[in-house]
Automatic annotation (TrEMBL):
Source organism, top-level taxon: Eukaryota
Domain Fumarylacetoacetase-like C-terminal, first and last residues per copy: 113-320
PANTHER family assigned: FUMARYLACETOACETATE HYDROLASE DOMAIN-CONTAINING PROTEIN 2A, FUMARYLACETOACETATE HYDROLASE DOMAIN-CONTAINING PROTEIN 2A-RELATED
Protein's name in the database: Fumarylacetoacetate hydrolase domain-containing protein 2
Species of origin: Anabarilius grahami (Kanglang fish)
Length: 320
């Protein structure tokens, strides 16, 4: 059936958009930038905050409402109640802490899962003369690899071929299994910037060429600077994405090059595992990684890696 030239699939997708913003009541119903932080000098105490604007003051949610939890994962598990509180806090303009008084942490720590998609940019496949995948290529990193947006990347003694990979990441906002593609975005709490740091020798030559070990050394998953809700982005599938090493651009593309869109990835992975609030997804990297340069280029101590995505922000990590 068609109604005013709109197909049934389009109607279902429109319904999913409205559901995401109203009936289902996920993070996508309000435009916000959520962060995890600690006060300088109080590194053991994690807090959740809402940025007034990118790079500006942060409203301390627990100061605004003492019933709020201290970690993003617990906050997301609260569902709409947590989001409503964050929205009220942002509107109040109260309990603002200066950026100079806090240290931003990864917007999510201790997730149940870190799910990654390989070979998911058309231009990255062309870079390798590799065929376009017919279905998503899924691998993982251990959650212990996660580090903050401005924390150091530690070069492991075990690897001589550590490489960069700027990636769009998203975080699951509510529990789901066998999720329909047209409803998938209503399960996404928001988006952030990731660097899928990779030890190419362990990814491509060692460990039976299984990718896990090469991807999951400590500090190999910088995330941040904020969890930006879906409503705050014009079009997540049309964002400039870049990586700079020591100020020189090495990756420069757009999320319109993604082969499998966010909805497809959520629906695909949820066929195999139950998705839970706080689960982190890395969606793949564009061309320009060091291993495919001629000659190959790898990170060394003292290098500064900056990963940027339009409308979300940038993370900046020094290699030590």
């Amino acid at each position: 059936m068609r109604f005013l030239g709109i197909s049934q699939l389009s109607l279902r997708r429109l319904n999913a958009v409205f559901s995401a913003g109203t009936i289902r009541g996920t993070a996508s119903s309000a435009a916000m930038r959520l962060v995890q932080f600690c006060h300088r000098g109080g590194e053991g105490s994690v807090r959740i905050g809402v940025e007034q604007a990118e790079g500006q003051g942060v409203i301390d949610l627990k100061a605004f409402d003492p019933s709020m939890p201290s970690t993003m994962r617990e906050f997301l598990e609260m569902g709409q109640k947590g989001m409503d509180c964050a929205k009220r806090a942002l509107s109040s303009g109260q309990h603002v802490v200066s950026r100079s008084d806090i240290r931003l942490l990864s917007p999510v720590t201790g997730p149940e899962k870190v799910v990654c998609v390989g070979m998911n940019y058309k231009d990255h496949c062309l870079e390798q003369n590799a065929p376009i995948p017919k279905e998503p290529i899924i691998f993982s990193k251990f959650p212990s690899a996660i580090t903050g947006p401005y924390d150091d990347i530690i070069l492991p003694e075990k690897s001589q071929e550590v490489d960069w990979e700027v990636e769009l990441a998203f975080v699951i906002g509510r529990k789901g299994k066998h999720i329909k593609e047209e409803e998938a975005l209503s399960y996404v709490a928001g988006f952030t910037v990731a660097n899928d740091v990779s030890a190419r020798d362990w990814q491509m030559k060692r460990n039976g060429k299984q990718w896990l070990l090469g991807k999951t050394f400590d500090t190999f998953c910088p995330l941040g600077p904020a969890l930006v809700t879906t409503a705050a982005l014009k079009d997540v599938h049309n964002l400039g994405i870049r990586c700079l090493v020591n100020g020189a651009a090495v990756q420069d593309s757009n999320t319109n090059q993604l082969i499998f869109h966010i909805e497809k990835v959520v629906a695909w992975v949820s066929q195999f595992v139950t998705l839970c609030p706080g689960d982190v997804f890395l969606t793949g990297t564009p061309p320009g990684v060091g291993v495919f340069k001629n000659p190959p280029v790898f990170l060394k101590r003292g290098d500064v890696v900056e990963c940027q995505i339009d409308e979300i922000g940038s993370i900046r990590n020094t290699v030590v």
